[in-house]
Write a structure and sequence with these properties.
The protein is mostly helical. It has one domain (8-155). The protein is 75% helix and 0% strand. The longest helix is centred in the last third of the chain and has 56 residues, at 102-157.
Amino acid sequence: MSPEELGIQTDTLELLNAEMAGSHDRQSDALGKIDNKAIVLVGYTLVAASFLATRHAQPVLAVLAYAAYATAAAFGVSAYAIGEYLDVDPVQLFLKYAPESKAQTLAALGAKRARNYALNQELNRKKAKRWLIGLFALVAGTSLMVAAILVQTYQHDHTRQPVRSGPAVHEPAGPYRSVESR
């Protein structure tokens, strides 16, 4: 656009920039929500793994549960990991566009915001996908943990204890047995 055409479009450019600024704010809020969910995911994973560590569980299922918990924690941390969230650099903006007209500055600002929005949206999608994979791993780990505990409990409760031969429970063993039992 020529400078004259930009001057005519100043009101439209201001409207577009205001809308893009709002979109960036909502996008930043969504990123914060994903980060919060990732922290909660890692917290639940650590608590569940700690709980499993205090129980007698079937070993194979317990190892699978720990593997699922490790996966959940890794994806939770990677979802929370700081990504390069793009924003307009105010120093560069000032230095480059201070001598330009309002319309030219608004046009450049709008173009930068639109490009950054698209790149940030992809970052948000990746973070959300990592969080979702971590959530599925946490659910799988919890299911495996419950199964490991139940299987071990069932095996323990249904294992026959060998019958012990020797003195009856009511008779003391050793040199303190009664005269009648000798």
